[in-house]
Amino acid sequence: MTIVAPPGDAQTGPEPLPRPAGGTPQPRIPGNDYGVLDVPALGAWQPRLPVSVVIPARGGQEKLDLALAALAAQSYPDHLLEVVVVDDGSAPPLRLPETAPERTRLIGAAPGGWGIAWALECGAAVADGAVIHRMDADIVPCREHVEAHMRWHHLAGYLVVLGTLRFTPMTGTVPAPAEVRARIARGEIDSLFEPDPGPGHDWVDRLLTEHRGMRDAPSALLHRIHVGATGSLPADLLRSVGGYDLSLALGEDTDLGYRLTQAGAVFVPDTRALAWHLGSSTAMTRSAEVARHNAPFIADRIPYRRNLRTDPGRQWLVPYVDVVVDARNASFEDVRASVDGTLASTLSDIRVTVTGPWSSLTGDRRAPLDDPLLDLRLVRGQYAHDSRVSFAEAVPATSAPAPFRLTCPAGWVPGADTLRSLVERAEEDDAGLLLVALDENDSGVVAARLERTAAVARAALVAREGESPDDVIADLYGAEWLDGESWRFRPAARAYPAWASDRNREAARWRAEAEARGKEAERARRKADKLAAELAELRAAVAKGQRDVARWRGKAEERRQEAVALRRAAQRSLLRRTRNRLGRLWKG
Questions:
Q1: Which residues contact residue 353 at a Cβ distance below 8 angstroms, ignoring those fewer than 6 apart?
Q2: 174: left (phi over 0), alpha (psi -120 to 50) or beta
Q3: Is the dihedral of CA 378, 384, 390, 393 positive or negative?
Q4: Under 8 Å CB-to-CB from 500, ≥6 apart: which residues?
């Protein structure tokens, strides 16, 4: 079965993917199942890639000294390991201690910025390694820590490796840097510090347990374990996603992890890459404040956080779905029907990209009604000032950082719930591609396509020359054909313009209906509160009555006991008087 896959003219199928740079395709990893790789045992392989450990630091000289001492005892070859410490405005300035790796540099953060993301970007910019290993200044790694990371990077060029943390409160006497280096070199990391009995990163442990070390974790969860502290990735991969977001004061690792997911990265949590975290992290000691601070920034950048995107009708920096409609060789009416139908979706978290030769629309003199580019001009005029719609000459390889892209042929209109339902279907099985058959003509099947951005990016990384991208996506993530009518796609002639002209009125009606239901719910809530208050009063009255009954029962019991005592006393008195009278009669 062939596919007519817009944008572009009818084709006999999707274009083959180009061979990756370097000529050799990467090894294929389905989803996040890195277990298909044959990772070597520690100490049983030959390293060849250089790595740069980048440490952002502000103050904390004592902890930095211990971190560098531990790095000086690493099993990874010295000539392949460099350390770049970035001083983010410490007062007094940081200094390099005597105990540190031979190739260690201390640089100041470049002027014009501040914060962890800025310091990391400054360090990565001067780093020489093929791999960037971000490590915090309060981390003491085990002897094989860097080696454990690097053995994975020798297997594939799109892995993100994360270390395993233990937390210590650093109570008692802190070992000197020389002692730390000696004991790390002897493999005695366990006895260096007392473990913190607190929860630490228990939530990470739960995710790893529930998803086999994240091997079967869905794409929407992967970024959550990218928490910084100790993580490594290829320098080229870091650059390809744009590096760190310098506008973020906190949450920069979560944001980067999300964008790496969309680039097709695989996340590898390695339990052998063990390290002590000196003290508790800010996210642990002030978790509620950190969550409150990060919520609006994370919501704007990470569509997977659906719980943070609950405001109806909101538009976000990164949309959940990028919908592409191609205006080439299409009528204005067909394009308008598809775009307006998409914008009326119950899933408002979308962006529409209309592709076409927009650069050809010059301001030269023309006959307005006989212009051969009239339909294109009408499309641009229709949406030029709609912030939800953008124009592009061509569609990029992926819609990153948006996690999904729906390509809809002009003249086909999705139903109100179609987008939401398709995304939910894709998320059920973490599917990479849903193909919705709409029609069939001489060129093949006309289809709409819902693509997972991460799957398309992964396919580009691992495809062999001439391979169909759909075949690769199906192999690694799964693909499914669906019926257009069942998923409520309709041709424009049957769907437009009657519903579109009433769209705002319908939206207003449903909003009014929702508000009315909200008022009813509020009245019901107040009534329930009143009933609850009355019930509380009744319970209090009953409780008081029970206490009174108990009190009067107690008093009655006291009176009964008194009466019994009096009766017994009276009986004893009567007996005594009778005995005395009988005695007198006897004597008398």
A1: 322, 323, 324, 325, 389, 390, 391, 392, 395, 399
A2: beta
A3: positive
A4: 337, 340, 341, 344
Determine how many CB atoms are found less than 10 A away from the CB of residue 187: 12
Where is average pLDDT lowest: 444-453, 458-467, 535-544? 535-544
Task: Report, as an integer, the average pLDDT of 420-437.
Answer: 96
A 10 A CB-CB count for 511 gives: 12
Query: Looking at residues 209-234, what average pLDDT do you find?
Result: 95
Say if residue 77 is preceded by a cis peptide, omega within 30 of 0: no
Please tell me the number of Cα atoms within 13 Å of 396 on its side-chain side.
11
Scan for tokens 């979706």, then name that residue.
345
Band of residue 511 on the pLDDT scale cut at 50, 70, 90: low
Confidence class of residue 505 from pLDDT cuts 50, 70 and 90?
A: low
Provide DSSP, 481-538.
Answer: EEETTTTT-EEHHHHTTHHHHTHHHHHHHHHHHHHHHHHHHHHHHHHHHHHHHHHHHH
- Helix pair 469-476, 453-462: axis angle to 10 deg: 110
Lowest mean pLDDT among 146-160, 227-241, 495-509: 495-509
pLDDT reported for residue 248: 94
